[in-house]
Amino acid sequence: MPIILLLIGVVFLLIIGLGVLLGSLDIQNIKAEWPKRRCDPTVMFSGFMYKPSSDPRSASAFATDNFNYCMRKNVKEVFDMLLAPALAVFSQQMSAANTTGDVFNSIRNQLGNQFRSFSRIFDSFFETYKRTALQLSRITQLIRAALLKVSAIIVSIVFMGLSLMTSLLNTYDFIIKVVIIILAIIVAMIILLFFALIPFLPVIFTTIAVLTAAGMGGAVGGMAGAFCLHPATKIILYDGSKISITNINIGDMLAGDSGRVIGILETDTIGDLYNIRGVVMSGSHLVEDNGIYIFANTHPDAKLVKNNIPERLIILNTEGRSIPTLDKNGNILNVKDWEEIPDDDEEGQLLWEKEVDKLLNPEVTTPRTLHVSESLGLFSRMTYICEEKSGIIPLLYIKRGDYILDIDGQFTKVLGIYKGCVYVNSYPTHKFWHTDGVRMLDKTNTWIMDEAFEIDICSTPTAETQRIYGYNLVTESGTFGIISENEYLIGVRDFTEVGYKNIDKTYEVVQKHLSLLNKKKGKQHNSNTTECVSDSSSQVYCCCLPQIFS
């Protein structure tokens, strides 16, 4: 038994030794072929056995690094094997794409060569076109320069014509004035040699009439714009006190036969102003000089105002149609009010109506019966006006400088505002009233004097007669629109009736009538004019003299 166990132990030891010998022989082979066999499965998991003695790493580190290397290598080989068919197909497609690109490049080169050959054929045509366009451009510039020169020549001719016309007019005016001066001398001689010149009187007066009709009446008073006074003008009251015209109120009693103030008009400054002994007024204002009324710019003491021009002017309406102003010498300088023609002068009032109707309705040729209104054109303060910014508002709130709706649908500037009074038998109950002095546009586009609306005007007022206040406007266009209760736009004339641009056309008629009226009343005295015979032509001539010699 012990011998058997001993034999078994010896055999076991021999087997172990043989295994160790065989293992040592395989390790040596693997180390010798390490690059090839390092990734064998058995070697991967027993890599620590094959660490060379020269490797500084530990056996475990050597085995770990070898295992990681082999895992990456095996994974790459697996993916390369799996993707090999797809990569082969993609490689073939890329090869085909390269071939197609080469074909397209070849076609493009051929087309490019053909286009370059074709364009060389047209290069000469393009060059010719550019040269032609350049020449046309030069010709166009030359034509434009020539047309500008022609335009300049035409403008020069126009100005030459205007200069020639002005020269002719000045020559004509000079000749006319020389003739009038000669006639003035002759008329002065009439007084001394009346009987000797009787045969020539018809010729003299006919010549005067012709000159007046030919336009010399314009030399008398053709001044555009309104006639008003400087705001600093001093007015003399009935009790002798003097106050500024800006402090005058409706109802104030003025000195002399001027009576009460019945209206005040405040306007923008329009036209030239003249200073007559400290009283500044418009050149078209009628001022008394030695008993007769002449235009301010023809007064012997009139001086043109060039500095300190006020932005507004004021004019009054009085019962006596005159305004007593105070000059720098402390004397009274009477000037006419706005209306100028007295209310009791029916002939003058009718003459004014005819003149206004002729200016406003020139196309109306059928004779019409005209009547004189009992009052100036006044509207109630609640009359609706369409203002550009505020819309429809009462007339009371309109100010100078506002723009209001005109009869043509346009907005016109408000140049002045008039506030006046009218005597009534009873106070109106309707808030939208107007007097019979308002001119409206009827259905036939004719300007007519409308009847009083919702107001009972008193024609013969007394001290106990009540009065009411109304308003009117002066506009740039001469008209404006009022809004009716039915919201209709009604066209009306402004306070000037004919418009401030045309009011100068009435000056000659008014002045001529007032001169005749003064003569009838015996108020005409010797001044800048000469005593004349009672012929109408000589009367016109006498009115012209102050303008000629001023």
Q: In terms of per-residue confidence, which ranges show pLDDT below 50 for 5 or more consecutive residues?
A: 213-224, 523-550
CATH class wording of the domain at 352-375 and 377-494: Mainly Beta
| Helix share, percent | 40-55%
User: Which sheet architecture does the biggest sheet show?
Assistant: 6 strands, antiparallel
- Give the strand tally: 21
* Gyration radius over CA: 58 Å
Query: Order of SSEs, N→C?
Result: HHHHHEEEEEEEEEEEHEEEEEEEEEEHH
The CATH architecture of the domain at 352-375 and 377-494 would be Beta Complex
Give the CA-based shape.
elongated
Spatial gap, N to C terminus: 181 Å
Q: In terms of structural class, how would the helical and strand content be classed?
A: alpha+beta
How many helices in DSSP terms? 8
Amount of beta strand: 15-25%
InterPro entries: Hint_dom_sf
Keywords: Membrane, Transmembrane, Transmembrane helix
Transmembrane segments: 6-27, 146-168, 174-196, 203-227
List keywords for this structure.
43% helix; Endonuclease - Pi-scei, Chain A, domain 1; 6-stranded antiparallel β-sheet; 550 residues; alpha+beta
